[in-house]
Amino acid sequence: MTVPRRESDVIIIGAGATGLSAARTLKKAGASVTVIEARDRVGGRTWTADIDGATLEVGGQWISPDQTALLDLVGELGLETFSRYREGENIFVRPDGERVRFSGDDIPAGEATTAEVNRLVALIDELSKEIDPEAPWQHPRAAELDSVSLSSWLAQHSGDEAACETVALFLAGGMLTKPAHAFSALQAAFMGASAGSFAHLFDEDFILDKRVVTGMQSVSLRMAEELGNDVILDSPVRSITWGGLDHPDAPITVESDRVTVTGKRVIVAVPPNLYSRISYNPPLPRRQHQMHQHQSMGLVIKVHAVYDTPFWREDSLSGTCFNPKGLVQEVYDNTNHGDTRGTLVGFVPDVKADQAFTLSADERRQAILESIADALGEKALHPVVYYESDWGTEEWTRGAYATSYDLGGLHRYGPDQNDPVGPLYFASSDIAGAGFQHVDGAVRIGTRTAQQIIPTLQS
Question: Where does substrate bind (predicted)?
Fold first, then answer.
């Protein structure tokens, strides 16, 4: 079958928040663009879907106060936000299974352990303040910090195993979705720097502040509406033919299932673990091949449970629960704006997700709901809608929430991750500085990459 051909100044691979932000910026500057997306929808790792009559945020959803690029874009697109429900007390399930109600910032893990958690958070927070989120590899101790895992670093600084596990819960399970032995202390400190403070990552009322009324995918849908026919869906890119580093201004041809596009520049706006899904002719330089092999996705099951009413509120509970030893380590009230029903969202991260996937679907559902019930009681066992977001099986994502480097990778390859390879540019929230791994980072790096390209088109 012969596919249509077209020409554009810039060809963008990926119609998530990164690619669409880049396309929007380029088009405003007068450049022609074509956005090619493998999925049959826009939004990438944001997806607001109707599941059994319930509207669920299958992918990324929250906005924190420091994410000003995203907040500005939401306002510009005419979208509205609302605050996450957080009234009432929270629940902490201690290792022995005791269920404790609490309020305030300190988790009731025992006086000594809580004090040690706060000390460790302060230590990492001070380290984060020394790090430039746009260049963490420039820290004087970058090589040292990047060669030791977060779990080892925590053990070096504290003999309180419970305190170390609690810190790892928030960062390893809640953010990078990899075991704390699988990424470095530098990666952890950088994560804090990218959020404005490591302490912000420990403050769920900050990092999980607001949602978009019509869902986070609305951000991408609105941008795609502006771009119209310049967005081509359901068309995986198979190859990029370019002139090589010796001929950076040679025409570039991008071949996909539904269109072939010739242009001057290309933005590969997909996660780094998918770069190798595309054939590059000639091949990318050795440095890029090596770099991309040291970036991998984490894994988490995002669980959605919808109930006839938000029953936890009747007991003066916020719906926020922490259970470091449980299958579901975190739970939050995720009720939609104006909805009379109640929705809980829970997270089963990294190795616990591995364990959950060894169960049948029915067994996994039961185990997950029982874990939530350990915190919120028997009513949690009976949702009217239940759904598991499993991005690990998504052909064009293959994990969640995002990629990060293995031990030693950040300081070794980070300095080159944002550099173009001749006319080829790479951009995603996975390699953003501020807003790293968040939709805000996607907007920032998409816009910034477009701004880099614009002068090259005019020369």
Answer: 347
Q: Locate 59 and state its tokens.
A: 């992918």
78 phi/psi in degrees, rounded to 5: 80, 20
347 among the known binding-site residues?
yes
Q: Exposed, middle or buried by CB within 10 Å (0-12, 13-18, 19+), for 87? A: exposed
What pLDDT does residue 202 have? 84
Confidence of residue 110 (pLDDT cuts 50, 70, 90): confident
Q: Output the six-digit token pair for 455.
A: 């002068």
Give the model's pLDDT for residue 264.
98
| Cis status, amide bond into 401, omega within 30 of 0 | yes
Tens of pLDDT along 78-100? 999 999 999 999 999 988 899 99
Is 38 within any annotated ligand binding site?
Answer: yes
Pair of tokens at residue 197: 């403070």
At residue 314, what is the residue type? E
Joined tokens for residue 302: 């995002």
Structure confidence at residue 107 (pLDDT): 85
Using the predicted structure, report yes or no on whether residue 1 has a pLDDT greater than 70. no
DSSP string, 347-395: EEEHHHHHHHTTS-HHHHHHHHHHHHHHHH-GGGG--SEEEEE-GGG-T
Compute and round to an integer the Cα radius of gyration of the chain: 22
Written as six digits, the tokens of 260 are: 């072939």
Q: What φ, ψ does residue 355 adopt, rounded to 5°?
A: -65, -40
Residue 18 labelled as part of a binding site: yes
Sign for the CA dihedral angle at 258, 277, 266, 396 comes to: positive
DSSP H helices, 106-216, are 111-129, 142-146, 150-157, 161-168, 185-194, 198-201, 204-207
pLDDT class of 104 with cuts at 50, 70, 90: confident
Question: Which tens digits make up the pLDDT trace of 339-359?
Answer: 999 999 999 999 999 999 999
